[in-house]
Amino acid sequence: MSDGMAQRERVALEAVRRAARVCRAVQDGWITPESLEKRDKSPVTVADFASQAVVAELLERELPGDALVAEEDAAELRAEDGEEIAAGVVAEVSAVLGRAVEKEQVCAWIDRGATDPIPGDPLAPRAYWTLDPIDGTKGFLRREQYAVALAYLVDGQVELGVLACPGLALEDDGEPGLVVVARRGGGTRFYAESIDGRVLDGRVASAASFADVRFCESVEAAHSDHDLSVIVARELGIVRPPLRMDSQAKYAVLARGDASVYLRLPTRADYREKIWDHAAGALVMTEAGGRVTDVDGRELDFSQGRTLAGNRGVVATGGVDHEAVLAALRGRV
C-alpha cells in the first residue's frame, strides 16, 4: 500500500470513529420517549450535521487537498429557523473536538462536501471521498442499526471503504461498536471501535444450498420491494426469514458470513441510488469474497456523479450463485 493510501486509511479510521462518538452522544442527549412519540427528527438532524462536520474537519486538517462529496450542506443551519439545530450541532462538534468552535466554522466544514463530480467535467476531481454521515436514520432513532460510511474513489473506482457500525459488535459476546475497513486488493478487516487491538478478517459464508441461506434487506418497505423479495426467496428455495436492518451495516453482516444475499430492489422506476449509500459497503463486500451488481447484473458504476445513474437497485451475494439470484429477478423488476 502506498504511503498516501496508508495515510488515508489511518485518517478514515479515525474519522468514522469520531463520527460514531458524536452520533452516540446525540442519541444519549437528544432522543427521548417524547421526541420519538412526536416523531421529532431533530436528533438525527443534529447527528447528521455533526457527524459530517467532524469527518470533514479531520480530512481538511490531515488531507487538505482531498475533495469531499457528501450528503449534507449547511443551508439549514444558516437559516433563521435553524438556530436551535445549529446550536446543538456546534455544541456536539465542540465536545468531540475538545475545543470551542464557531457556527460558521462548523458550516464551512459541512459545506466541504458540496463537491460535484460531474462526469466529463474537466474541472471535476479525479479522486475524492464520499460520505454518508448517518446511513440508516430510522435505525439511528430506534437505537438499532445505522452506519457512518466513508469511501475514497479514484477515476470512479472505490479504492478504500470504511464503515463504523455502532450497533454491531466485533464478536457475538462483545460490546457494540464495530469498524470495518476494505482496501482494493487488500481484503476486508473488522476492528472494535474501542481500538482494543483485535482484528478479524472478513470472509463471506459458503452455503451448500439456498435452503441454508439467509438474506438481508432494508427495514423500510419504501427502500426496497419486500413483496418481490418474498417471491424471489421462494423461487430460490430460501426458507429462513429475512434479516431486516437499516444502513450499510448489511454489507458488514454479509462480509463476515452472517447472511449470504442482500437485495435492494427498486420501488420506483426512476429512482437511482446515491454513491455514498453503497461505495464503502460494496468494497467491504467484494474484498471479503462476495459479489455486488445491480438487478440487471451490471457492476456498480461510481463514475456517473452523485448517483449510480447507470444502475438499478443492488444485489450482493456471498458464497451462493449470484447468477441464480439475478435469474430469479429477471422479468420481475
Q: Your description of this structure?
A:
- This protein is of the alpha+beta class and 333 residues long.
- Helices cover 37% and strands 20% of the residues.
- Helix 3 packs across helix 5, helix 8 packs across helix 11 and helix 9 runs parallel beside helix 10.
- The chain is globular.
Explain the layout of strands and helices:
Blueprint: H1 3-30, H2 33-37, H3 42-62, E1 67-70, H4 75-78, H5 83-97, H6 103-111, E2 127-135, H7 137-141, E3 147-154, E4 157-169, E5 176-183, E6 187-192, E7 199-201, E8 215-217, H8 226-236, E9 243-244, H9 249-255, E10 261-264, H10 279-287, E11 291-293, E12 314-317, H11 322-329
Parallel strand pairs: 1-2, 8-9, 8-10
Antiparallel strand pairs: 2-3, 3-4, 4-5, 5-6, 6-7, 10-12, 11-12
Helix pairs in contact: 1-3, 1-5, 3-5, 3-6, 8-11, 9-10
Can you describe this structure in just a few lines?
The protein has helices at 3-30, 33-37, 42-62, 75-78, 83-97, 103-111, 137-141, 226-236, 249-255, 279-287, 322-329; strands at 67-70, 127-135, 147-154, 157-169, 176-183, 187-192, 199-201, 215-217, 243-244, 261-264, 291-293, 314-317. The protein is of the alpha+beta class. It has a 7-stranded mixed sheet, sandwiched between helices. A 5-stranded mixed sheet has the order 9-8-10-12-11, with helices on both faces.
